[in-house]
Amino acid sequence: MFKFFKRVGTVVNSELNSMLDKAEDPVKMLDQFMRDMETDIREAESAVAKQIANEKMLKRKYDDAQALAEKRQEQAEKAVEAGNEDLAKRALQDKKNHQEQADSLKESYDRAQADSQSLRTKLEEMKKEYQEMKLKKDSLKARAESAKTRTKMNRSMSNISNDESKRGFERMEEKVMQHEAEAETSEDLSESNRSLDDEFDELEKDDVDDELASLKKKLGKE
């Protein structure tokens, strides 16, 4: 008999969660558990195959011994019919030996057959349990990956919302506001300069007009 999943007994009972809590990487641990279970199943399959081979061997030996015992029975009957009692006795004695051997082999064969059936049943149970654990592993891996993603997101959000980041953002905002104020001041100065130039232009324009009026008066063209 072999022991179910000897390497991963804790995986198939209530200690799974506590083992995962201690694991640095639950996903890697789950994968290792599944590899160990697969190894146990392969070993169990090998044990079942050997047991079945032993069962077949005992069956073949039993069939041979039983067939020889029956053959000696038929030969003893022929010897009696032929009137050869000595030959009949020797055939019956040999039949007895083979029959005893056949009976012993039959007992061994019956036990081997029962053991083979028991091992087959347990192997099927192992494979069923493995499939159940595989589904559970897939679910746990998905949960673990989701937890990692949430942790990364939370850390990123924490970095964004921490005081240092806020202060940095505020400093940049102040600089932008300062640049905007400087731009507005520059525009005001430019506008002021333009207004002053316009006044001088008007002043020069007025001087020309006065000169033109004086010239007309002089020439009597008013």
Automatic annotation (TrEMBL):
Region annotation (Disordered) ranges: 69-222
Compositional bias per record (Basic and acidic residues), positions renumbered to this chain: 69-113, 121-148, 163-182
Recorded superkingdom: Bacteria
Biased composition (Acidic residues): 198-212
Homology family: Belongs to the PspA/Vipp/IM30 family.
Name listed for the protein in its UniProt record: Phage-shock protein
Species annotation: Pontibacillus yanchengensis Y32
